[in-house]
């Protein structure tokens, strides 16, 4: 059974609850060609009436009262999506969708039993998000300022605001947001993660310039994770379970760039029951899951920095960093370790997970306090490999964590080294490695030799054999290059 991390009874936020999400809103108008959503700027009576007419006409199409035939309901929902697209994305003078129109499209995605409608509503939501972003950057006095549209529609219910009634009828009643068996739910998850990412990325850029913690305190991700409606530990565990259930060895990262849009979406009905389409959505969901993990890890890193600078307060609350929850889950469920490391290929964070796993068994660094910065005490891969340079020290570690786990972690750490070599832009990961590729390769081979001496009956997996073969070949090549 798949576990979906979002399990809210409702996910929409009312306009009143949306308005409290940010206090730092620039009044500066957005540059063309994009137009602001729900800017609440004064408009002429004629223009307002026209916008209201478009909304009423679109919502009238979605009203399913008295409709008995499912085909008619399908056609009306398709007509509603087309009406929203025409009003908000097409033509010479498109207008921003109202809260009700946004919500109507989202309900089509949530409640539709048609793959065609699910795909069409998913891509419409994605395009509307790009055309009318809630959070974006604008140039102001030679630097980038963050702009947040406070009353934009959101798919999340954050806070204690009331929730409007269902729109469109035939709503699925469920205690959970997702039905694990439906392709529609994979697209819904992708959209929710995309919404978080669209808010997170401009804040990250603005934070680098200002080091203002409030920027992230008011982010959707931080508010969602701090919501009383979400139990953080269960949320992370559900993410791990979903990651493992969605992982396929043949999954390609390139799927991020292969998401079809308007023209391709219309042909989705031709793939209604196709296993290939289901597999593709599974791979996209995997990409979204990794994005979600990385965003939370980055948020935790920024929170740690803000703590060290004294920028946080009791009002920020407290939760364990996601890294600690992941490590606890992987340590308790050893069978999760291998598939998790295979599925999670964000090199910087993958290496950090491996190093922190080793740190549980390879001695402790200096004690950290809330305001101290002992980052120089963090374990590096070079130091980890030094624990395996003799049979005696290797035996001491194996006694604590097991030979199979040690071999697996070392092989994946070496995979990170190979993957980031020559990447000058990934200085953080290079620093965490702590030595040249030649030194790491030699010590990696030595570590496996000592592991073999200590546990001669332990099998080596094909993945680990490939890592050893690569290390031996690279060592010979690098030594020859030096001559």
Tell me what the structure shows:
Residues 36-49 have a biased composition (Low complexity). One of its GO terms (cellular component) is nucleus. It is a single chain. The protein has 483 residues and is mainly alpha-helical. It folds into two domains: 15-27 and 43-159 and 174-343, no CATH class; 347-482, no CATH class. It is 57% helix and 2% strand. It has helices at residues 15-18, 45-62, 70-88, 99-111, 115-131, 183-210, 214-217, 220-225, 232-246, 262-265, 275-308, 322-332, 337-343, 347-359, 381-386, 391-401, 403-420, 427-433, 437-454, 462-482, and strands at 135-140, 143-148. A two-stranded antiparallel sheet has the order 1-2. β1 and β2 form a beta hairpin. It is elongated, with a radius of gyration of 26 Å.
Q: How many distinct helices?
A: 20
Mean of pLDDT: 77
Query: What order do the strands of the largest sheet run in, or round the barrel if closed?
Result: 1-2
Q: Give the overall form.
A: elongated
Number of strands: 2
In total, the number of domains comes to 2
Counting copies of identical and different chains, the oligomeric state is single chain
Organism: Setaria viridis (Green bristlegrass)
Protein name: Negative regulator of systemic acquired resistance SNI1
GO molecular function: transcription cis-regulatory region binding
InterPro entries: SNI1
Q: Topology, please?
A:
Blueprint: H1 15-18, H2 45-62, H3 70-88, H4 99-111, H5 115-131, E1 135-140, E2 143-148, H6 183-210, H7 214-217, H8 220-225, H9 232-246, H10 262-265, H11 275-308, H12 322-332, H13 337-343, H14 347-359, H15 381-386, H16 391-401, H17 403-420, H18 427-433, H19 437-454, H20 462-482
Antiparallel strand pairs: 1-2
């Amino acid at each position: 059974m798949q576990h979906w991390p979002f399990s809210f009874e409702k996910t929409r936020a009312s306009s009143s609850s949306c308005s409290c999400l940010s206090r730092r809103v620039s009044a500066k108008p957005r540059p063309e060609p994009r137009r602001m959503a729900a800017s609440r700027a004064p408009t002429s009576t004629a223009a307002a009436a026209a916008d209201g007419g478009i909304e009423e006409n679109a919502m009238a199409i979605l009203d399913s009262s008295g409709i008995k035939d499912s085909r008619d309901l399908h056609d009306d929902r398709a007509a509603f999506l087309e009406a929203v697209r025409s009003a908000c994305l097409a033509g010479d003078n498109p207008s921003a969708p109202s809260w009700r129109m946004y919500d109507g499209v989202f309900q089509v995605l949530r409640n539709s039993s048609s793959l065609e409608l699910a795909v069409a509503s998913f891509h419409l939501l994605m395009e509307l998000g790009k055309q009318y972003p809630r959070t974006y950057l604008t140039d102001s006095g030679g630097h980038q300022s963050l702009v947040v549209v406070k009353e934009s529609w959101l798919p999340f219910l954050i806070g204690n605001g009331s929730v409007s009634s269902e729109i469109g009828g035939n709503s699925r009643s469920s205690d959970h947001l997702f039905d694990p068996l439906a392709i529609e739910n994979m697209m819904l998850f992708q959209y929710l993660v995309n919404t978080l990412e669209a808010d997170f990325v401009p804040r990250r850029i603005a934070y680098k310039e200002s080091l203002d913690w409030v920027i992230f305190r008011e982010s959707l991700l931080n508010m969602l994770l701090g919501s009383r409606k979400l139990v953080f530990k269960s949320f992370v565990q559900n993410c791990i379970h979903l990651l493992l259930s969605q992982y396929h060895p043949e999954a390609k990262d390139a799927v991020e760039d292969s998401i079809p849009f308007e023209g391709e979406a219309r042909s989705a009905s031709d793939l209604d029951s196709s296993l290939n389409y289901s597999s593709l959505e599974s791979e996209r969901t995997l990409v979204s899951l990794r994005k979600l993990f990385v965003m939370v890890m980055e948020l935790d890193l920024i929170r740690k920095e803000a703590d060290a600078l004294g920028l946080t307060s009791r009002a920020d609350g407290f939760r364990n960093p996601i890294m600690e929850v992941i490590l606890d889950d992987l340590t308790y469920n050893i069978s999760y370790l291998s598939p998790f490391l295979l599925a999670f290929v964000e090199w910087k964070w993958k290496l950090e997970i491996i190093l922190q796993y080793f740190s549980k068994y390879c001695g402790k660094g200096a004690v950290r306090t809330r305001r101290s910065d002992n980052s120089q005490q963090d374990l590096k891969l070079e130091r980890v490999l030094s624990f395996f340079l003799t049979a005696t020290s290797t035996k001491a570690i194996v006694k604590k964590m097991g030979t199979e786990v040690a071999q697996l972690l070392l092989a994946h750490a070496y995979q990170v080294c190979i993957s980031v070599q020559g990447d000058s832009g990934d200085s953080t990961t290079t620093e965490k490695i702590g030595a040249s590729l030649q030194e790491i390769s030699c010590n990696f081979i030595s570590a496996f030799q000592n592991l073999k001496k200590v546990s001669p009956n332990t099998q080596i997996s094909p993945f680990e054999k490939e890592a050893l073969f690569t290390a031996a070949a690279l060592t010979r090549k690098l030594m020859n290059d030096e001559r």
